[in-house]
Amino acid sequence: METLYHQTNKQIQEVQSLMGRLENTDRPSVHLLENELQARIDQIFSHLERLEILASKEPPNRRQNAKLRVDQLKYDVQHLQTALRNFQHRRYSRETQDREREELMSRTFTTNDADTSIPIDETLQLNSNLNNAHRGMDDLLGSGSSILTGLRDQRGTLKGTHKKMLDVANMLGLSNTVMRLIEKRATQDKLIMIGGMLLTCVVMFLVVKYLG
């Protein structure tokens, strides 16, 4: 499992590096880069399925930690998948906007043309909507990046918490003898209390019977 885990983690880091090249890639090549990124992400998901099976077969004392590590990889690749889809959506919106602008600029009109009225208002509205969508996707991509950073921080926290849990478990294992002695003493005290109550009841009964 360790070999496949480190291999998958390395692939995620490579995808993160390639994602940084998307914005600077020219239009003819960006489709090829997107296809390569998607193929790598699909392969990572395939490895994660295998890792989940291997994690479930780990010894009980290591199974929970193994599942946490696999879950962290899954969170990372899911955010990479979301970031890629956001970029593709923004690129599609930008290309649509450019194409419509070129079509509008390339139109020729004559004085006898029956369709000389250009729907300027609708074109401006469409342009405004596309710009708003573009800004919205930028914000969403930024939020996804912030979430990914937060998950990485949580990963470190979970590792520290897991170590503390193991330390506490070891401490509890060393103090089992002390706990058994405490439980034994508590049982003895309970029996003594019950015996005292019964004795008191008997004495009260005898007093009432002979003095009554």
Automatic annotation (TrEMBL):
Top-rank lineage group of the source organism: Eukaryota
Location relative to the cell: Endoplasmic reticulum membrane; Golgi apparatus, cis-Golgi network membrane
SUPFAM superfamilies referenced in this protein's UniProt entry, alphabetically: SNARE fusion complex (SSF58038)
Membrane-crossing residue ranges in chain numbering: 191-211
Membrane topology per record: Single-pass type IV membrane protein
Main subcellular localisation: endoplasmic reticulum
Keyword Magnesium tagged: no
UniProt KW keywords: Acetylation, Coiled coil, Endoplasmic reticulum, Golgi apparatus, Membrane, Protein transport, Transmembrane, Transmembrane helix, Transport
GO biological process, one term: protein transport
Entry GO MF terms: SNAP receptor activity; SNARE binding
Cross-referenced InterPro entries: GOSR2/Membrin/Bos1 (IPR027027)
Pfam family, one: V-SNARE_C
GO cellular component, one term: SNARE complex
Gene3D superfamilies: 1.20.5.110
CDD domains: SNARE_GS27 (cd15863)
Function of the molecule: Involved in transport of proteins from the cis/medial-Golgi to the trans-Golgi network.
PANTHER family with a match to the protein in the record: GOLGI SNAP RECEPTOR COMPLEX MEMBER 2, VESICLE TRANSPORT V-SNARE PROTEIN VTI1-RELATED
Family: Belongs to the GOSR2 family.
Protein name: Golgi SNAP receptor complex member 2
Protein species of origin: Salvelinus namaycush (Lake trout)
Gene designation per UniProt: LOC120036197
